[in-house]
Specification:
single chain, about 350 residues, 2 domains, three-stranded mixed beta sheet, about 45% helix
Length: about 350
């Protein structure tokens, strides 16, 4: 059996320092009066512990060297705990020491503990005493082969800690966030597809499509029905689609701040970016901060949107005006021919 480094160091200290020297300040008579060794219990099962005790009582001023072991006493007997010597009593004439070790064995049988040497040194005299030999009986563990195998201890449940639950909680939150992003990604294009088909017709100007969509939004009376968030979402979607078609910017994929920066670069610091900024900021507060605007704010947002669209209608060129007038004259002539077929012969 291997000991940790610290236990080996402690055992070394006890063995070669603490256990080697016991100094007596009494006249030396050169004899140890008593050496006893005891094994309790003398019979154990495989792996059980036994206590090996050594007691020494002597007189005189001398050095006492107690037995020193490695990890084992014999090849069959293992030392589990190496005890330090304790002083039982100490007076002017006598000193008694006691040392205890915990031993065990892992094989079945009878294992002798050989005599151990105890050395006393005083002046120029060295005396060696031997303990009596002992016998350790180790019995096997009875196993009933007819019975089914059983656990050493019953199975019991441990309470679940927060640290064990944390990975599952984080995983659930990450999954919920992913699902939310997917739903938002899927629903956004669908909301745009539900807009009037007027946006998909290239021959209809952006300002006409925007004003028509804004009037349709007014007629839905969404905020009056308590659907304030949906009302502001559709309002800003109409403005974004108008900006895309009118100014050729990717407004549907831009944030409110990016749109305002682009419009300020185009129009400078005038009322047009300010009008647009009021609408977008109010919409962000409603959608993301759960802000509940007043009725006048809801109505004013729609009016500002219509005003912004009207103020950004592109001016017609001279060629466009001429083409429009010619188209009007032709349409008028066609109408007269249809109404009065006699004019067709002139």
């Amino acid at each position: 059996m291997e000991f940790p480094l610290r236990q080996k160091f402690i055992r070394f200290t006890y063995s070669y320092v603490g256990l080697l020297v016991v100094l007596l300040f009494l006249p030396f008579n050169g004899r140890a009066q008593e050496v006893n060794i005891d094994l309790e219990p003398g019979e154990i099962s495989i792996g059980q512990h036994a206590r090996l005790s050594i007691e020494v009582e002597f007189q005189g001023k001398s050095l006492v060297i107690l037995p020193v072991f490695n990890d084992t006493i014999t090849s069959e007997i293992e030392v589990l705990s190496y005890g330090r010597p304790d002083t039982l009593h100490h007076d002017q004439n006598r000193l008694a020491l006691r040392q205890e070790h915990i031993i065990t064995a892992w094989d079945e049988g009878f294992f002798p503990i050989p005599p151990m040497e105890i050395i006393t040194i005083a002046h120029e005299d060295t005396l060696i005493f031997e303990t009596e030999p002992l016998l350790l009986e180790v019995s096997g563990i009875e196993v009933d082969m007819a019975e089914a195998p059983k656990d050493i201890k019953p199975i019991f449940s441990m309470p679940i800690t927060f640290r064990e639950l944390l990975p599952y909680v984080l995983g659930a939150l990450a999954l919920a966030a992913l699902i939310w992003l997917l739903v938002r990604y899927v629903r956004r294009p669908r909301a745009l597809e539900q807009k009037p088909g007027i946006w998909e017709k290239p021959d209809i100007p952006a300002h006409i499509a925007a004003i028509s969509s804004l009037e349709s939004l007014r007629n839905k009376k969404l905020w009056q029905k308590g659907k304030v968030k949906l009302y502001h979402s559709e309002l800003t979607d109409i403005l974004r689609m108008y900006l895309e078609k009118r100014f050729r910017i990717n407004a549907l994929e831009m944030t409110s701040g990016e749109i305002l920066n682009h419009m300020q670069q185009k129009f400078g610091n005038n009322e047009k970016p300010d009008q647009l900024g009021q609408i977008l900021k109010l919409s962000d507060l409603v959608k993301f901060a759960k802000y509940q605007p007043e009725a006048s704010q809801n109505e004013n947002a729609l009016e500002l949107a219509i005003q912004f669209v009207k103020e950004t209608i592109p001016k017609e060129t001279t060629e466009e005006k001429t083409n429009r007038k010619e188209d009007g004259i032709l349409d008028k002539q066609k109408s007269e021919i249809i109404i009065n077929p006699k004019n067709a012969n002139k």
